[in-house]
Amino acid sequence: MTGKVFSVILLPTSECNVACDYCFEHKESHRLSSVLVPLLTRRLLDHLEHEAIEECEVYWQGGEAMIMGPAWFVEAGTLMDSAAAARGRHFTHYLQTNLISYSPAWNDVLRTMFGGSLGTSMDYPNVHRRLFKGGAEAYTELWTRRLQEARAAGIEVGVIAVLHQASLDAGPERFYRYFADDLGLNNFQVNTPFPGGPASKVEGGFHLDNDELAKFLAGLFDVWMERGYASGVALGPFDALVHHFTGAPARLPCIWKENCSNQFISVDSKGTVAQCDCWVTSYPESFYGNLFREPDLTRMLHTSPARRDFVDRPKYLVEHEDCLSCRYLSICHGGCPVRTYSALGTMLAKDPYCEVYKAVFGRAEMHALRLLRGRIGFNRTRS
Amino acid sequence: MDQPLVTGFPELFGVPQEVYRFLRYLPTALAEGQGDRPFVALAGNPDELRRWLVEPPGGLQWIEIEGLLDDLEAWAPGTRSTSQAPLDIVLTEPAAEFANLYRLVDVCATRDLRVTIPAAPGFLKAVKLAASLRLPIRLLPGQPTPGVLAELTESLEFYLHGPMVETPVEFFHSLLATACGADRGSLWMILEEDPAGFLRYDREGRPKLPRSGGFGSVEIFAEAFVENRLKSLLEQGAECANCPWQQVCRGYFKWPDPAYSCAGVKRLFSLIEAAADEMKQDLASIEEQPDLIGEDRP
């Protein structure tokens, strides 16, 4: 085996049970049939075998993944894992859910299939995540209750927060306090927003001023370093950046990979293959093919013209943008293709959050330097 | 010989240095049948690369590849093969080829990789990108022109102070280590151009000298080539006689043209020595500094 890991963002349904304002996904009432899981599994395992890859990480999300029900996951997980074992491979499963339909009925499958953990999302303040009936306030109340129930059952919960204007208005101190103190979380991350969907609808009301966003993130970094870092609170992507700048192994988020096309794909309930969930749910022009109709995933990935654009993007950026002269090229590589595409209508440009990333990288570098200096002093006193 | 035969790259690949005494670089056709005798395979096309990746004989130390960076499909076997054979990717026109280094992202997840970059105009782009992809670099300076010397100086600054540089950039890396007191051998050895340690063969099986046409008796004189060459330079009154870097350079920059002026190269050596002095002072001052606890810790 080569030691490589392949990742699949698997969308068993694009249905959803909530109505968030900024959701870019094209929702359809379609679900992945259990009957097709063996075929899906075979296609993935064939690809792993062709590429001499032993492990495949499967990120289950939607739509809303929990709509499928726990029994469906037990069946799918059992089938996939036994098929993988028979071919000397291994699936590792992760679940991303809005938690709204969580109940104790999920606990067994969460423990056996998902290692006793799940990922969910919440913003602060929550003004855009809504129930179909009851709006944002009811959403927050129900989500918070589900979070408490899951944690009480021993499930580890990581939370993704998407920043919006009200987050910036609330300020980093209050934002951090909500997640770390009010909710008592020790594992959460912040994502930058992007509109998704057709590029012409870019200015859809979720645009943030880059300077303001950079200032917020730098402030949040400072608050976390002061209050959370030493006490074991993981705040992504800041924690990975601190690891990186202090020389520790770091797993940076996909937006900063050398080339995301080498790392993962996304597959929806109809078998559509695209680069990630953002592409598979929003941009038909970027589809690589269909896993159920085409017998060879490896061949699909190698011959897809749409994927070629992803493969060539970093190469294009260092030739045409100013990325090569950037001190942070090694941890950014031009940023996220979908953030670029959704803002500019082309992926052949650097990420519009370039200046925001630089501000965050600079903050990480500064804090890492302080940590390293502190360690020198610490080692001296011990020796 | 009391100095190590090889530094840098073979150490990186974790193979005992003893293996490399008279390591031969062989074109694919000549390398067949080497079996367990140590050699480096020279691959010039996808078929040759695939041949060494799929069925590497015991003696294969690494594969040197030139001219394939633009060929996307050529690298697929490098990502799939379960053999651990390391790859040395040689750029021929670094200024034009540099962006294709992204082709190697998948390959370096599965095996050790190094990029060899000739110091031709525009090579700094390749240095920057290779370093950003965390690929070890072997920079071949040859006899640099003034323009290339300026780029070498900029590359040295990038290697010394670029916060993102995590992997060695040879020859800077070994010269810095030497200036800090380590024994990394001569520049000829550091750059794997000393025929006493590394002997290249052309397609007809004739041994070649580096950066020059081959000659038939190279094998006979291989062990003494560098020292004989230096002796000859000194006898001819070359500037090597009074050069403070003679011990590590051994006339490297006077080959193949003995009339080459080393003024610019000496400035480069001086910069490396100054950086080494700075490092030594920094380390000494850390020893003397008062306790930093509670002062700089966040």
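qc> The CA atoms of residues 171 and 216 of chain A lie 7 Å apart.
qc> done
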